[in-house]
Amino acid sequence: xxxxxxxxxxxxxxxxxxxxxxxxxxxxxxxxxxxxxxxxxxxxxxxxxxxxxxxxxxxxxxxxxxxxxxxxxxxxxxxxxxxxxxxxxxxxxxxxxxxxxxxxxxxxxxxxxxxxxxxxxxxxxxxxxxxxxxxxxxxxxxxxxxxxxxxxxxxxxxxxxxxxxxxxxxxxxxxxxxxxxxxxxxxxxxxxxxxxxxxxxxxxxxxxxxxxxxxxxxxxxxxxxxxxxxxxxxxxxxxxxxxxxxxxxxxxxxxxxxxxxxxxxxxxxxxxxxxxxxxxxxxxxxxxxxxxxxxxxxxxxxxxxxxxxxxxxxxxxxxxxxxxxxxxxxxxxxxxxxxxxxxxxxxxxxxxxxxxxxxxxxxxxxxxxxxxxxxxxxxxxxxxxxxxxxxxxxxxxxxxxxxxxxxxxxxxxxxxxxxxxxxxxxxxxxxxxxxxxxxxxxxxxxxxxxxxxxxxxxxxxxxxxxxxxxxxxxxxxxxxxxxxxxxxxxxxxxxxxxxxxxxxxxxxxxxxxxxxxxxxxxxxxxxxxxxxxxxxxxxxxxxxxxxxxxxxxxxxxxxxxxxxxxxxxxxxxx
Length: 574
Fold this sequence. Notes:
- The protein is 33% helix and 16% strand.
- The chain has helices spanning 2-13, 18-35, 90-94, 110-117, 169-186, 203-217, 235-238, 244-250, 256-265, 311-323, 325-328, 357-365, 368-373, 411-418, 438-446, 470-475, 516-519, 521-533, 544-548, 552-566; strands at residues 58-64, 70-76, 97-101, 120-122, 128-130, 140-144, 155-157, 160-162, 166-168, 195-200, 223-229, 278-280, 284-285, 290-291, 392-394, 424-430, 459-465, 490-499, 504-509.
- A ten-stranded mixed β-sheet has the order 1-2-6-3-10-11-16-19-18-17, with helices on both faces. The protein has a three-stranded mixed β-sheet with strand order 9-15-12. It has a two-stranded antiparallel sheet with strand order 4-5.
- Helix 1 (2-13) packs antiparallel against helix 2 and helix 5 crosses helix 6.
């Protein structure tokens, strides 16, 4: 408007050559082209403590999820050399859009944005640093704090904005789908971009259920695939592998004799309350926002009125607790094992412990200047990431839900329905995740029932372990990329993958714990590139019959060739 009014005044003041009269109008048109139809009031112009321009254009605000529910979003466009705020590039126009969701339930997706795969991370001192492995090197990244009541997202209770919201798996998927339609109304230019939904942990429920919602009720969205890490998937398939006694025995923390006694004679189980099925703000450990873990068996109840336990069981149970950091506890102040990554540092995970990464992230997000920069003034949330004590969440499916009645559908049923309608469904799991161990996830995906592609059996895949800069190593938090080094390590083992029919794959990520983008950022970016390009992680093997018919010398030569191929372009870029 300013430029147009200036040109009108210029024309009335004195005649000018036509090309000079058109210049202001052309500037306006160029500016409109650069700004898209994006809401200018929600543009993030700068972030405190960054000390420089944003890596690419960003927006933050609220999406209308219907019935008075508003979900906070944060969008970062694909980065490109020389890009800056208010400059949208051809690369961003063409790049896929990826929605990221953290799980919980009750975990803010901004934890992913600022600790895992976003363009800016909370550094070791609580300020911001550039993420050299950000997903925005490949895609436009959208994070949404979901469901209502988490982070700065809110609902309406008795006519007033509130974070004391009640949600279910079903309502969460429907709200997220409506929020996506609200997002594309704000950013219509992205409606034609390929769209992917990604997430981890309890987002193993959010992602496939939202994918079903989009496929069934929002066909104008170009959903191409899903990317799901360390996920809640199926109660039956994951029961043992999500038990801390089982996991501690697997990794040598409990001797065979004690495990046999506790598991088979005493009937003891140590399941994570991650699978409780019903959550509230009160049921989460306030400092960690993670469900409390209890030992399950009447004989081990803490109630003094419970029947006495057999002495041998009590002794073995106490040895287990002592030898496993209280069953991989992260709320115990003396914990010496990390329940999210077995080989990672035992790090304080609480949001109220000075110096912890979560506490620094929370402090940053609650700053008044950050709330203003992200346009969060409308939220009634008094703290972050929440949720408040009266917040409620009830699981609807048989995935991390001990309350599910028999014959309740799980995510296995959802994958069976959505994978044939998508270009790519990639489910992955860190192979050192104590919280959601890979064996159960692998078993769950196998139970979808699709046949394995010929030559697609469980086989290794590789990535290029490029060097990190000294600046990155100085600034990063301890748990971000613990395998990063100053030296280029070349082609390295990334994990193993099995490919099924209907473009469904399950992959392990070697050395990664529960949050793969945080613990193995290079690998996470490599896998994302395969997802959005449709390229395989690794070559197929010969079919079983053909491989079995090779002579020993032929097999040795074949294995040499296959391994070299798997570690070379196009499977592993230089």
